[in-house]
Amino acid sequence: MNHTLESLRKELDRINFQLLNLIAQRGSIVKEIGEIKKKQSVNKFDPIRERKMLDQIIEHNKGPFSDDTVRHLFKQIFKASLELQQEEHHKTLLVSRKRRPLDTVVRIGDEEIGGNNDPIVIAGPCSVESEEQVRKVAQVLKQQGLIFLRGGAYKPRTSPYDFQGLGEQGLEILRKVADEFHLKVVSEIVNPANLNSSVEYVDVIQIGARNMQNFELLKAAGSVQIPVLLKRGLSATIEEFLFAAEYIVSRGNNQVILCERGIRTYEKWTRNTLDISAVPILKKESHLPVIVDISHSTGRRDILDAIAKAALAAGADGLMVETHPDPAVALSDANQQINLTTFRELMKEIDRYNRLNTVKSDG
Ligand code: PEP
Ligand code: MN
């Protein structure tokens, strides 16, 4: 009995190797076909041919496997074969760390985000409301030694009756005030048609959560030579987020910063749920810098210290935070923006955390 089992197993091993050899042979032929198709610019996937092959195989099926099982097995082989024919970038994204093991460092003038650089903080009001409002914020940023001033000029609001932003006038205000204080402007663009002209005012183009899958906007952002801060969509998976970044990078602009800003879940005690695990996952899977928007991900002011530290501990290359001279009268996100005094305190707390960590890693 044991002797029979042993010899049957040997027989199985032999067949396994035969199958492997046959699959490998099939793979080599498929690759050759792929080369020919490439020269002839013919589409690699040919559903009519695939259907014909499957029909022929099923016709010859004499069991013991059911037709469905045989179909399933061969479809797997076809799928793997098609992958062999595909270009490298179809298999492994340009934004993937497998394609580029080194961190991408995003450069904005003399400033750098990502790589071994210290984490940066991007701060400013949710919306640009007036020159005076932006100047009050810019002054504090400057005092704090910060570089990146944010502010929304084109506001993608959930309700069409809410403040829609000052548009180009808002961008003009940002540029003017930022120049006074030698700051860099980060601002959202929502329409591909506005991209080229916005380059005049903006140092980093923000693509907001609601537009993460606005593919025309992504393509347009890939065609300009200015850094892009891409926010994760309201309900986007990490994979979808990386595909969105791929749209930009594959068009020629590799200066992309990923921003985790919370995703929609059933939890109601925060505005969104900060997916903190996305930070190390994105850093691992991709070479792009990753920052965390602590304002939109929480929608509340009372936990910002802890969330900022959590983001830095998770490996974020920076933070985004909304601050307003008088949040109570803000035209958007009045409940989550912090006033300038609280902002200074938050910065102190972040500095303390960073110093502590530097000492720890030095020691
Ligand atoms: C913003 O940062 O101004 C904004 C609208 O955020 P989000 O796109 O993440 O909602
Ligand atoms: Mn906001």
TrEMBL record:
SMART domains, sorted: CM_2
Gene3D superfamilies: Aldolase class I, Chorismate mutase
UniProt source species: Desmospora profundinema
EC number(s) given by UniProt: 2.5.1.54, 5.4.99.5
PROSITE patterns: CHORISMATE_MUT_2
The protein, known as: 3-deoxy-7-phosphoheptulonate synthase/chorismate mutase
Molecular function GO terms recorded: 3-deoxy-7-phosphoheptulonate synthase activity; chorismate mutase activity
InterPro entries named among the record's database cross-references: Aldolase_TIM, Chorismate_mutase_GmP-bac, Class-I_DAHP_synthase, CM_dom_sf, CM_II_prokaryot, DAHP1/KDSA, DAHP_syn_2
Superkingdom, taxonomy of origin: Bacteria
Lineage: Bacteria, Bacillati, Bacillota, Bacilli, Bacillales
PANTHER family: PHOSPHO-2-DEHYDRO-3-DEOXYHEPTONATE ALDOLASE (PTHR43018), PROTEIN AROA(G) (PTHR43018:SF1)
Keyword annotations: Isomerase, Transferase
